[in-house]
Amino acid sequence: MDFLKFFNRDTGPSKNVAKERLKLVLVHDRTNCSPHFLDMVKDDIIKIISDYVEIDESGLEVKLTKTKRDSDDTMMPALVANIPIKKMKDKSRT
Amino acid sequence: MGEAIVITSGKGGVGKTTTTANLGTGLSQLGYKVAVIDADIGLRNLDVVMGLENRIVYDLVDVVEGVCRLKQALIKDKRYEGLFLLPAAQTKDKNAVSPEQMRKLTNDLKEMFDYVLVDCPAGIEQGFKNAIAGADKAIVVTTPEISAVRDADRIIGLLEASELRDPLLVINRIRIDMVKRGDMMNIEDMIDILAIDLLGVVPDDEAIVISTNKGEPVVNENTSLAGQAYRNIAKRIAGENVPFMNMESNESFVSKLRKLFGLAK
Amino acid sequence: MTEENAIEFKGTKQGLSICIKPNYDFQTIKVHLIEKLEKTQSFFKGAKIFEIKGDMLTHEEKEELASIMTTRYKMDISSCEKPSKSVNSKEEVFEGIVEGKTKFVKGTIRSGQKIDYDGNVVILGDVNPGAQIIAMGNIVVMGSLRGIAHAGSNGNTKSCVAALYLDPTQLRIADVIARAPDGDYEKPNNPELARIKENMVCIEPYLNKK
């Protein structure tokens, strides 16, 4: 948001703030996604990935954002998971 | 056979009732036979906005319960021959009517009128379900505020889930001065987010408050910008191709395409 | 002996009135009804049922009883539809407007509220727009009457409506309806009384102006 301050001395045009906030809220509304849902996703991801790598469960972060689709620049909701890895597990396990 | 259009918004206070009264009046100015239904049972208001509150003897619930015939409950407008109001009951609540009964009622009215406009209550509960039950089309009213646009988005999703596809958007209470300053979302911003077709834009206008005080829809006021905007919207509903007023459009406003997020729901 | 009392048949001018006593479950009621009709089958055949009374029963349950009586025992139920409403409209005109039972309501009656009474009504407060007062007798408002008032609701044309400030959205006396005039109008600030004169609602002061 820093570049906005450049245009408007004190704060950026409030409509841009409104629009950004609105878009984020709508991503959640439209996917009908509750914090509980995200927790469920998180738990399952931990379960599956733990078979292969040792992860830092406390640092794991799952959130909904939006991102531009490569083909036509349309905004798409995206599920982003940030998973800190402690170390790789022994491959012989599989 | 007429067409039933529900006017809805999700959020309260964005101007559903004012829009219903003005579009009803506007369409009857054009010579159509119009019935406006107040579906806000328990919190009726369309009657006072149209200035017909002292003529109510029977209401929507009386018709549904068979206390009176449909024609007995219809109140003729003060000015326009072809305009009638079916008022809501004030002493009952939303559960006094079922979606099935509303569907029948709207169908009966469609036999008698060219347009049947249903003023939907705020919210997404029983009252909303009743109001949209008999509708062929939907108009979503919103204002340039985060809360109103968010609720409009939710409503559009619910309408689509109820087979009311392609609702049209009316943006109410826009303030050009604030839009120019960048302190209010502009039309393009909202179309971009909601991704539905625009039916019209109504500027914030003191004349609305004054006309509501008097119980005479602002669409009758030739000098009022809001009145002009409502007349244009009425014509668009009737199928005329009316260009957007200067204040309605803004230089960068071109796209009315559904695109954002690629999400239909 | 209690068994016999679950259902009572009463003859009235309009037909049979079937009273269902409370505190019985629906199955017992059904069994009792069938027992009772089995015993006296030929007697009730073709009998006209005027109403089924029973506060404990739902509409569906009443329908079920009705269908047993019509299909199995060939009783006639055509005239019995909305029990509570049809009874009310047939009641006699309330005559107690000079001296009769009266309900006093203290406080403001607000939009959406409705006072419906089979006698005279006195409101110790205001009646706001959107509120409704319906009385079989007179209505007296010790405050401002801005809502809807219906006096003589079951047809007494001699009933009246009085208020300290009488400015109703709509005024009904018996079956005559009057409404406030359109647009601005002058309203005297003194108490007024409305009653029917020559089939019109007529409003006049009831105190000499001071």
From TrEMBL, chain A:
Keywords annotated in UniProt: Cell cycle, Cell division
NCBIfam families according to UniProt: minE
Family: Belongs to the MinE family.
Gene from which this protein is expressed: minE
Record's keyword annotation contains Cytoplasm: no
Protein known as: Cell division topological specificity factor
Organism annotation: Anaerovirgula multivorans
Highest taxon, organism lineage: Bacteria
GO biological process: cell division; regulation of division septum assembly
Protein task: Prevents the cell division inhibition by proteins MinC and MinD at internal division sites while permitting inhibition at polar sites. This ensures cell division at the proper site by restricting the formation of a division septum at the midpoint of the long axis of the cell.
Automatic annotation (TrEMBL), chain B:
Residues involved in ATP binding: K11, G12, G13, V14, G15, K16, T17, T18
Ranges of residues in domain CobQ/CobB/MinD/ParA nucleotide binding: 5-218
Superkingdom per UniProt: Bacteria
Gene3D superfamilies: P-loop containing nucleotide triphosphate hydrolases (3.40.50.300)
This protein's record includes keyword Chaperone: no
Role played: ATPase required for the correct placement of the division site. Cell division inhibitors MinC and MinD act in concert to form an inhibitor capable of blocking formation of the polar Z ring septums. Rapidly oscillates between the poles of the cell to destabilize FtsZ filaments that have formed before they mature into polar Z rings.
Family: Belongs to the ParA family. MinD subfamily.
UniProt protein name: Septum site-determining protein MinD
Lineage, uppermost ranks: Bacteria, Bacillati, Bacillota, Clostridia, Peptostreptococcales
TrEMBL record, chain C:
Classification via SUPFAM superfamilies: Cell-division inhibitor MinC, C-terminal domain
Gene3D superfamilies according to UniProt: 2.160.20.70, 3.30.160.540
InterPro entries for this protein: CAP/MinC_C, MinC, MinC_C_sf, MinC_N, Septum_form_inhib_MinC_C
Domain Septum formation inhibitor MinC N-terminal positions: 7-70
Transmembrane segments: none
The Septum formation inhibitor MinC C-terminal domain, residue ranges: 104-203
Keyword line: Cell cycle, Cell division, Septation
Zinc among keywords: no
GO biological-process terms attached to the record: cell morphogenesis; division septum assembly; regulation of cell division; regulation of cell septum assembly
NCBIfam families the record matches: minC
Function (record text): Cell division inhibitor that blocks the formation of polar Z ring septums. Rapidly oscillates between the poles of the cell to destabilize FtsZ filaments that have formed before they mature into polar Z rings. Prevents FtsZ polymerization.
Quaternary data: Interacts with MinD and FtsZ.
Family: Belongs to the MinC family.
Protein name: Probable septum site-determining protein MinC
Species whose genome carries this gene: Anaerovirgula multivorans
